[in-house]
Amino acid sequence: MLSSLSDGQRLVGIKQCTKAVNDGVVLTAYVAEGVAPNISEPFLRLCEKKQVPVIRVSTKKELGHLCQIDVDASVAVVLK
């Protein structure tokens, strides 16, 4: 499932990902462990409400690497 993050069309960042989940265009969401609760909790609740599966990734650095970017990432989504 993590391979779809590097292969598929994706968005990175809380603002873009939140908008995409609200718009109903997200297949899967990814959230890094250790993200501040004031960022992760509202996003996780939104994903639950919109029935978007969430996959946890061990670190922000790993999520950034999986997204093929040179910086850490807290949240990413794969688009439908």
Could you walk me through the main structural features you see in this protein, from its secondary elements to its overall organization?
The structure is a single chain. This protein is α+β, with helices and mostly antiparallel strands and 80 residues long. The protein has a single domain, classed as 2-Layer Sandwich (60s Ribosomal Protein L30, Chain: A). Helix content is 44%, strand content 24%. It is built from 4 helices and 4 strands. The chain has a 4-stranded mixed β-sheet with strand order 1-4-2-3. Strand 2, helix 3 and strand 3 form a beta-alpha-beta unit. The longest helix has 13 residues. The radius of gyration is 11 Å and the shape is globular. The relative contact order is 0.31.
Give the CATH superfamily: Ribosomal protein L30/S12
- Indicate the mean pLDDT: 94
As for the number of domains, it is 1
Helix percent reads 40-55%
Principal-axis shape equals globular
Class derived from helix and strand content? alpha+beta
In short:
The chain has four helices and four strands; from the N terminus they run H-E-H-E-H-E-H-E. By secondary structure, the protein is an alpha+beta fold. The chain has one domain (3-79): Ribosomal protein L30/S12 (60s Ribosomal Protein L30, Chain: A, 2-Layer Sandwich).
Provide key terms for this protein.
80 residues, alpha+beta, 60s Ribosomal Protein L30, Chain: A, 44% helix
How is the secondary structure organized here?
Blueprint: H1 3-7, E1 10-12, H2 14-23, E2 26-32, H3 37-49, E3 54-57, H4 60-66, E4 75-79
Parallel strand pairs: 2-3
Antiparallel strand pairs: 1-4, 2-4
